[in-house]
Amino acid sequence: MAKKKTIEDKTKYRDELLEDIMGAGFGRYAKAIIQERALPDARDGLKPVQRRILYAMYHDGNTWDHPYRKSAKTVGLVIGNYHPHGDSSVYDAMVRMSQDWKVRLPLIDMHGNNGSIDDDPAAAMRYTEVRLAKVTQVMEDDLDKNTVEMAPNFDDT
Protein backbone atom coordinates (compact mmCIF):
# COMPACT_ATOMS: atom_id res chain seq x y z
CA MET A 1 0.00 0.00 0.00
CA ALA A 2 1.34 3.45 -0.94
CA LYS A 3 2.32 5.82 1.80
CA LYS A 4 0.23 9.03 1.94
CA LYS A 5 2.26 12.23 1.74
CA THR A 6 1.50 14.82 4.33
CA ILE A 7 1.85 18.58 4.09
CA GLU A 8 5.04 18.44 6.12
CA ASP A 9 6.66 16.23 3.49
CA LYS A 10 5.96 18.69 0.66
CA THR A 11 6.98 21.89 2.43
CA LYS A 12 10.61 22.98 2.57
CA TYR A 13 11.60 25.44 5.25
CA ARG A 14 14.75 27.49 5.36
CA ASP A 15 16.10 28.27 8.77
CA GLU A 16 17.04 31.98 8.51
CA LEU A 17 16.90 34.92 10.85
CA LEU A 18 14.23 37.53 10.21
CA GLU A 19 16.86 40.29 10.48
CA ASP A 20 18.84 38.74 7.63
CA ILE A 21 15.82 38.38 5.37
CA MET A 22 14.58 41.92 6.05
CA GLY A 23 18.07 43.38 5.72
CA ALA A 24 18.66 41.80 2.33
CA GLY A 25 15.23 42.79 1.05
CA PHE A 26 15.52 46.36 2.26
CA GLY A 27 19.00 46.65 0.77
CA ARG A 28 17.72 45.67 -2.68
CA TYR A 29 14.75 48.02 -2.33
CA ALA A 30 16.91 50.96 -1.22
CA LYS A 31 19.32 50.42 -4.10
CA ALA A 32 16.47 50.38 -6.61
CA ILE A 33 14.98 53.59 -5.19
CA ILE A 34 18.32 55.39 -5.28
CA GLN A 35 19.01 54.31 -8.85
CA GLU A 36 15.54 55.07 -10.17
CA ARG A 37 14.42 58.16 -8.25
CA ALA A 38 17.01 59.79 -6.03
CA LEU A 39 19.95 60.18 -8.40
CA PRO A 40 19.71 62.46 -11.44
CA ASP A 41 20.02 60.76 -14.81
CA ALA A 42 23.47 61.28 -16.34
CA ARG A 43 21.98 61.89 -19.79
CA ASP A 44 20.03 65.03 -18.92
CA GLY A 45 20.80 65.69 -15.23
CA LEU A 46 17.16 65.48 -14.16
CA LYS A 47 15.35 63.37 -11.62
CA PRO A 48 12.12 61.68 -12.79
CA VAL A 49 9.87 64.15 -10.96
CA GLN A 50 11.71 67.09 -12.55
CA ARG A 51 11.45 65.54 -16.00
CA ARG A 52 7.72 64.95 -15.50
CA ILE A 53 7.14 68.55 -14.43
CA LEU A 54 8.93 69.95 -17.47
CA TYR A 55 7.17 67.52 -19.80
CA ALA A 56 3.74 68.35 -18.37
CA MET A 57 4.34 72.10 -18.58
CA TYR A 58 5.59 71.80 -22.16
CA HIS A 59 2.59 69.74 -23.29
CA ASP A 60 0.21 72.10 -21.51
CA GLY A 61 1.69 75.06 -23.38
CA ASN A 62 3.01 76.67 -20.19
CA THR A 63 6.13 78.00 -21.93
CA TRP A 64 8.21 81.15 -21.49
CA ASP A 65 6.32 83.03 -24.22
CA HIS A 66 2.92 82.55 -22.54
CA PRO A 67 1.51 84.09 -19.35
CA TYR A 68 2.22 82.57 -15.94
CA ARG A 69 -0.18 79.94 -14.58
CA LYS A 70 -0.99 79.04 -11.00
CA SER A 71 1.50 76.58 -9.54
CA ALA A 72 -1.36 74.55 -8.07
CA LYS A 73 -2.76 73.95 -11.57
CA THR A 74 0.60 72.65 -12.78
CA VAL A 75 1.04 70.47 -9.69
CA GLY A 76 -2.42 68.97 -10.23
CA LEU A 77 -1.63 68.30 -13.88
CA VAL A 78 1.61 66.53 -13.00
CA ILE A 79 0.04 64.44 -10.23
CA GLY A 80 -3.00 63.55 -12.31
CA ASN A 81 -1.16 62.53 -15.46
CA TYR A 82 2.42 61.61 -14.68
CA HIS A 83 3.47 61.44 -11.02
CA PRO A 84 0.93 59.88 -8.62
CA HIS A 85 2.64 60.97 -5.43
CA GLY A 86 2.08 63.79 -2.96
CA ASP A 87 1.66 67.35 -4.14
CA SER A 88 4.45 68.58 -1.85
CA SER A 89 7.11 66.52 -3.64
CA VAL A 90 6.07 67.97 -7.00
CA TYR A 91 5.83 71.54 -5.71
CA ASP A 92 9.16 71.30 -3.87
CA ALA A 93 10.82 70.11 -7.08
CA MET A 94 9.25 73.01 -9.00
CA VAL A 95 10.46 75.51 -6.43
CA ARG A 96 13.99 74.10 -6.48
CA MET A 97 14.13 74.31 -10.28
CA SER A 98 13.25 78.02 -10.02
CA GLN A 99 15.87 79.00 -7.41
CA ASP A 100 18.92 80.54 -9.08
CA TRP A 101 21.01 80.06 -5.93
CA LYS A 102 20.51 76.27 -6.07
CA VAL A 103 20.77 75.59 -9.81
CA ARG A 104 23.03 77.14 -12.42
CA LEU A 105 20.22 77.74 -14.91
CA PRO A 106 16.69 77.81 -13.48
CA LEU A 107 14.40 75.76 -15.71
CA ILE A 108 11.23 77.21 -14.23
CA ASP A 109 10.34 80.88 -14.04
CA MET A 110 8.37 81.36 -10.82
CA HIS A 111 6.38 84.49 -10.10
CA GLY A 112 5.99 85.08 -6.38
CA ASN A 113 7.90 84.04 -3.28
CA ASN A 114 10.06 81.04 -4.16
CA GLY A 115 12.03 81.05 -0.92
CA SER A 116 15.38 82.60 -0.14
CA ILE A 117 19.04 81.72 0.03
CA ASP A 118 18.64 81.68 3.84
CA ASP A 119 16.31 78.66 3.52
CA ASP A 120 13.09 80.58 4.02
CA PRO A 121 10.31 78.43 2.56
CA ALA A 122 8.49 79.30 -0.64
CA ALA A 123 4.94 80.57 -0.51
CA ALA A 124 2.17 78.00 -0.81
CA MET A 125 1.45 76.86 -4.34
CA ARG A 126 -1.84 78.73 -4.40
CA TYR A 127 0.08 82.02 -4.16
CA THR A 128 2.75 81.42 -6.82
CA GLU A 129 2.65 81.21 -10.59
CA VAL A 130 5.01 79.41 -12.95
CA ARG A 131 6.01 78.93 -16.55
CA LEU A 132 8.97 77.31 -18.24
CA ALA A 133 12.10 79.44 -18.39
CA LYS A 134 13.37 80.52 -21.80
CA VAL A 135 16.38 78.21 -21.53
CA THR A 136 14.08 75.17 -21.64
CA GLN A 137 13.34 75.93 -25.28
CA VAL A 138 16.65 74.23 -26.10
CA MET A 139 15.43 71.10 -24.32
CA GLU A 140 12.01 71.31 -25.96
CA ASP A 141 13.56 71.45 -29.42
CA ASP A 142 15.23 68.09 -28.74
CA LEU A 143 12.27 66.47 -27.01
CA ASP A 144 11.41 64.33 -30.02
CA LYS A 145 15.00 63.04 -30.30
CA ASN A 146 14.47 60.62 -27.38
CA THR A 147 17.57 61.65 -25.43
CA VAL A 148 16.03 59.82 -22.48
CA GLU A 149 13.87 56.84 -23.37
CA MET A 150 10.20 57.42 -22.63
CA ALA A 151 8.46 54.81 -20.51
CA PRO A 152 4.77 54.36 -19.73
CA ASN A 153 3.58 56.02 -16.54
CA PHE A 154 1.52 54.51 -13.74
CA ASP A 155 -1.59 54.00 -15.89
CA ASP A 156 0.25 53.01 -19.09
CA THR A 157 -0.49 56.25 -20.96
Helix content, binned percent:
40-55%
Mean pLDDT: 86
User: How would you sum up the major sheet?
Assistant: 3 strands, antiparallel
Major β-sheet strand ordering: 1-3-2
Return the structural class.
Answer: mainly alpha
Catalogue the unreliable spans: none
Number of strands: 3
Calculate Rg over CA atoms: 23 Å
Beta-strand proportion: 5-15%
Could you explain how this protein is built, in words?
This protein is mostly helical and 157 residues long. Helix content is 42%, strand content 6%. The protein has helices spanning 7-10, 18-38, 48-59, 71-81, 87-98, 136-141; strands spanning 69-70, 108-111, 129-132. It has a three-stranded antiparallel beta sheet with strand order 1-3-2. Helix 3 packs across helix 4. The longest helix is centred in the N-terminal third of the chain and has 21 residues, at 18-38. The radius of gyration is 23 Å and the shape is elongated. The relative contact order is 0.13. The model has no long low-confidence stretch (mean pLDDT 86).
